[in-house]
C-alpha cells in the first residue's frame, strides 16, 4: 500500500555523519537506495541522466568517465554554507546543520542526504536545499517556481523525513541581492506517484538486475550509450531483426524528409540575406538603423554591432605543435567519438554467382 497523508513515522538515521566517509564510501552508501537527486531520473525528468544510467550506478557498473560538470558541482558544494547563511539572515529562521543520511522506515529503498534542517519559530522543522545557478538559467525560476527536477527532489526529501515544508535557496551572483527563495509544501499526490515509480525502479530493475528500457529524452539516451560503449573494431557485426531493420529504414526516410526541408531552409536563408545586403550597405559603419512604423506604437530597428571572439585555426594548431611541442602536448587533446550512420547499400554479388555467370 502507498503512503497516505498524515501517517506518523520518523526517518531512520542510516549514517550519523557522512562527513566521516571517504568519497568512495559515500558513493557506496548512496547505492543502497534512491536519493533525492535520483528522483528526477526515475521520473525521466532529469536534464542529465537516464534511468539506464541510474541502474548501472546502483549496481556499481557505471563507466568511469570524466564528469564534465565537476566544477559546477564543486562550486555548489562550497557555496552551500554561504547560501544557508544568507537564507538565515533574510528569513530569521534557525538553520540546523545535519550530516546524517536518512532512510524511509516504510520504503527502505528511499534515502535522503539533505543540505540543512530549518527550525521554525513554533518548534517545527522543515528542509533547506541550497542551489547555485547562473543568470541565464533564471527563466527556470520564474513565477515563484523552481526547476521541476528540484521539485521532485524536494518531494522525495519530505517523504523520507516526514516533513511538510521545504525551502530552496538559490544564489545566482556574487551578492546577497542575487538570491532567490522558493517555498514548497508537501504534495501527497505527487509523493505517491513518486513512490510508485521509485518502487517499480528498485524492485523490477535494480533488485532483479534487469536494465530498464530507454525512455524520456533521446539526447540523454544517446549520450548514455556513447559513454557506455566505446567501440571495438574487431567485434563481429550484429545481425538485426526485421523490426530493427524497419526502424532504420524509417530513419532513412526521415533523413530524406529532413534533407528536403533543409533545402527549403537554405533557400529561405538566401532570401533573408538578400534583404539584408542593401540595408547593411546603407548603414556602413553605423550600428543602428530605425524606421517609424507610423502607428505610434512600434518602430523597426536593425542593429549591426561589432563582436569579437578568440579562435584558433587549424594552421595555427599545426604551428603550435611544430614550434612548442611540450605546450601542444599539455593543452591539446584528441577527442575520440563514435559516429552512428545508416545507409541502404547494394550488396556485392556472391563469388559463386559470379563464377557461374562466367562459365555460362
Automatic annotation (TrEMBL):
- What are the transmembrane regions? none
For whether the record's keyword set contains NAD, the answer is no
Q: Pfam families recorded for this chain?
A: YqaJ (PF09588)
Q: Which InterPro entries match?
A: Lambda-type_endonuclease (IPR017482), PDDEXK-like_dom_sf (IPR011604), Restrct_endonuc-II-like (IPR011335), YqaJ_viral_recombinase (IPR019080)
Domain YqaJ viral recombinase stretches? 25-160
* Molecular function per GO: hydrolase activity
Record key words, sorted = Coiled coil, Hydrolase
Which intervals of the chain form a coiled coil?
A: 244-271
Q: What NCBIfam families is this protein classified in? A: phage_rel_nuc (TIGR03033)
Question: What is this protein's name?
Answer: YqaJ viral recombinase family protein
Amino acid at each position: 500500500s502507498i503512503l497516505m497523508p498524515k501517517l506518523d513515522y520518523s526517518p531512520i538515521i542510516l549514517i550519523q555523519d557522512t562527513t566521516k566517509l571517504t568519497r568512495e564510501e559515500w558513493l557506496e552508501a548512496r547505492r543502497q537506495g534512491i536519493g533525492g537527486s535520483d528522483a528526477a531520473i526515475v521520473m525521466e525528468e532529469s536534464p542529465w541522466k537516464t534511468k539506464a544510467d541510474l541502474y548501472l550506478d546502483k549496481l556499481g557498473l557505471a563507466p568511469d568517465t570524466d564528469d564534465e560538470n565537476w566544477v559546477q558541482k564543486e562550486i555548489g558544494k562550497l557555496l552551500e554554507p554561504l547560501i544557508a547563511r544568507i537564507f538565515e539572515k533574510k528569513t530569521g529562521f534557525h538553520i540546523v546543520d545535519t550530516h546524517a543520511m536518512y532512510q524511509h522506515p516504510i520504503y527502505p529503498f528511499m534515502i535522503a542526504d539533505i543540505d540543512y534542517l530549518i527550525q521554525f519559530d513554533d518548534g517545527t522543522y522543515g528542509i533547506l536545499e541550497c542551489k547555485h545557478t547562473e543568470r541565464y538559467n533564471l527563466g527556470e525560476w520564474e513565477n515563484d517556481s523552481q526547476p521541476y527536477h528540484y521539485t521532485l527532489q524536494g518531494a522525495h526529501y519530505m517523504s523520507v523525513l516526514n516533513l511538510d515544508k521545504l525551502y530552496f535557496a538559490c544564489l545566482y551572483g556574487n551578492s546577497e541581492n542575487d538570491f532567490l527563495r522558493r517555498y514548497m509544501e508537501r504534495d501527497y499526490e505527487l509523493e505517491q506517484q513518486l513512490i510508485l515509480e521509485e518502487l517499480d525502479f528498485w524492485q523490477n530493475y535494480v533488485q532483479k538486475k534487469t536494465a530498464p528500457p530507454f525512455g524520456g529524452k533521446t539526447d540523454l539516451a544517446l549520450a548514455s550509450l556513447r559513454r557506455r560503449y566505446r567501440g571495438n573494431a574487431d567485434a563481429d557485426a550484429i545481425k538485426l531483426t526485421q523490426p530493427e531493420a524497419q526502424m532504420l529504414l524509417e530513419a532513412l526516410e526521415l533523413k530524406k524528409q529532413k534533407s528536403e526541408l533543409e533545402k527549403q531552409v537554405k533557400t529561405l536563408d538566401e532570401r533573408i540575406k538578400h534583404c539584408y545586403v542593401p540595408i547593411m550597405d546603407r548603414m556602413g559603419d553605423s550600428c543602428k538603423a530605425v524606421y517609424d512604423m507610423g502607428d505610434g506604437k512600434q518602430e523597426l530597428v536593425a542593429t549591426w554591432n561589432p563582436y569579437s571572439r578568440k579562435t584558433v585555426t587549424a594552421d595555427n594548431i599545426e604551428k603550435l605543435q611544430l614550434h612548442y611541442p611540450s605546450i601542444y602536448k599539455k593543452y591539446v587533446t584528441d577527442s575520440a567519438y563514435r559516429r552512428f550512420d545508416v545507409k541502404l547499400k547494394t550488396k556485392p554479388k556472391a563469388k559463386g554467382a559470379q563464377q557461374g555467370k562466367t562459365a555460362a
